[in-house]
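Today's session is about reading a structure prediction critically. Students often jump straight to the picture, but the first step is always the sequence itself: look for stretches that repeat, for charged clusters, for runs of hydrophobic residues. Only then move on to the predicted structure, which in these notes is written as discrete structure tokens rather than atom positions. Here is the chain we will use throughout the hour.
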Amino acid sequence: MTTENTYAYRIEGGYPVVGKIACLGAKNFVIKAMVAALLGDTPTTLTNAPAIGDVDITAELLTSIGAKVERVDSQQLVIDASSMDTSTVPTPHSGSNRVPILLLSALLHRFTTVSVPVVGGCKIGARAVDFHLQAIRRFGGVVDETSEGYVARRVKSLKGTHIDLPYPSVGATETCLYLGVLAEGRTVITNAAIEPEVMELIMMLRSMGAIIFTSSGRDIRIEGVKQLKGTHIQALGDRIEAASWASLACASNGDVTVSGIRPDTLGNFLSYFQEIGGGIELMGAESIRFFRARDLRPAIIETDVYPGFSTDWQQPFAILLTQADGISIIHETVFENRFGYLKALDALGARTQLTSHCLGGIPCRFRDKNYEHSAIIIGPTPFTATSEPITIPDLRAGLAYVIAAAIARGTSIITGVDFLERGYGNIVPRLASMNLKIERIAGSSL
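Below is the predicted structure for this chain, in token form.
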């Protein structure tokens, strides 16, 4: 039963979605940039910073330790770390995300002892913090794990080191960047993540005065400096959101132009999108038109770290594959528990099956570990709305459910929208302007 202060979406599906939509700034960059701003001695201005839940949670974390976070307008933040007066990070009242574990490293340059709460986030698989803690120790810090969180101590100056990541984790790479830029001497990170958001973070740190070298592979070399200054940077568009709107356009047999997105950040998504029958047209430096070019064909998709097919693209893409003529396969190699959303799709009419076998050729950490991390999707299957509400299990699945409801005949109710709005805000006005019959309703009206 939903409560008075929760919301749901009511969507009447079965119509092509047509129109224009602008991407928000990339959540996965903005919240990491907010942490990086704490490394500067002067204020940092972030533009194209969306007014969404995860940004609000991060702002609450920063202000709780004395930093000043000012939202100048709906798209601009100014962060001043000079007033920070404590290194004990409390659990935020408005929810939790992965930022506390990143603060553990960033704040260790300013304080000799830092404590953060246990981190949270979407339940899509284990997100171990071992890499983060080991990195701090490699730089010379001391880390203790307690029942309430993690405590890091700096008994002497942090020293540059060589970090060979066993997996190119985005979060672990970011932790090493925060540690390395102000550590004494040289730091080398091998097998680092190279996602667009990571490369943008590197560009931001360079603009603050950091000396960072990248290679043609996954190696990053950092020459530590004594201090960093604030900067002014515009967040890149959210490539995960852009792929979702592309999937919505194609699945509904509509026509959507997405602005505010650099095409190069979409990489392999565009190739797979065209392979199954989607059409694209570049409309400018940061604008792409998406539509259905022909009848949809099945595909074999394997998620992987960048530049592979992003794990965050697979949920909306799965909706497309339910409408393709044949048998498609998705092999998830990044998170072991990311297919929980398929059950709701089956209720709408999808035909899917999960297996613990690796249905693909990419080396997979989950081989022979009994995780149901491969999905078989048989299509095409028309979707029909059900009388029972669809509950969103995690952020990325939320957009997939909106797409599913948009192509289902009848009226669907989607609950748990707080997960979705944490990453994308209230999407209803943006989608309603594109012929999608969607409204945001109070939970008490269900």
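Discussion point for the tutorial: The first strand starts at residue 7 and ends at 13.
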